[in-house]
């Protein structure tokens, strides 16, 4: 699959590693591509517009406040499957928190900006440290997926499985209203409460280990 990762920072870089290992053709979409490509082991950088044209599927791996300009630069990602890996974060009550609550979500805001794209929420629920090496866990970490287009959701869940996560259908895109606060739980445990980044949530089923 041809995958455009919009943003080449820590999240984008980790996803590029995982997807490259799985055999996907990856490009970084950035505002100002570096024509030198100083690291031949990393995907090439191309413009956001070229990345949108190249991709079978695109992933937003940028700060949430950059999304509006990126969607515009991509021409709205028309007809594309678009995974929103962002979280709408900002400073609230003296600390990092969500800037919107349970009546809407960042993913729904992105869907409004890109009405002709097929928007999904995923890859937002854990840190970049786990995205490159989900296969390192004894049980696959869980990654929930929210989105409205059923054909696109099949594609997204297959891509997530390729990175080593267990993909779970969380329902329609409005379920992002739950998945963004859920991401804050991981962030709080990892960054504030001493657990560090080397943990992930998994889904266990009763009786699964019985002989």
Can you describe what's shown?
This protein is an alpha/beta fold and 211 residues long. It has a single domain (2-191), classed as NAD(P)-binding Rossmann-like Domain (Rossmann fold). Helices cover 32% and strands 22% of the residues. It has seven helices and ten strands. The strands form two sheets. The protein has an eight-stranded mixed β-sheet with strand order 3-2-1-4-5-8-9-10, with helices on both faces. Strands 6-7 form a two-stranded antiparallel sheet.
Strand content: 15-25%
Counting DSSP H or I runs of 4 or more residues, the number of helices is 7
The overall number of domains is 1
Mean pLDDT score, rounded?
91
* Quantity of strands, as a count: 10
Proportion in helices? 25-40%
* Level-1 CATH class name: Alpha Beta
CATH architecture: 3-Layer(aba) Sandwich
Name the quaternary structure.
single chain
Query: Which class best fits the helix and strand makeup?
Result: alpha/beta
Task: Let me know the CATH homologous superfamily.
Answer: NAD(P)-binding Rossmann-like Domain
Strand adjacency order, main sheet: 3-2-1-4-5-8-9-10
Q: Which consecutive residue ranges, at least 5 long each, have pLDDT under 50?
A: none
- Broad shape: globular
Reported by name, the CATH topology is Rossmann fold
Main β-sheet: number of strands, strand sense, barrel status? Answer: 8 strands, mixed
Helices and strands, in order, run as EHEEHEHEEEHEHEHEH
* Rg of Cα set: 17 Å
Straight-line distance between termini: 39 Å
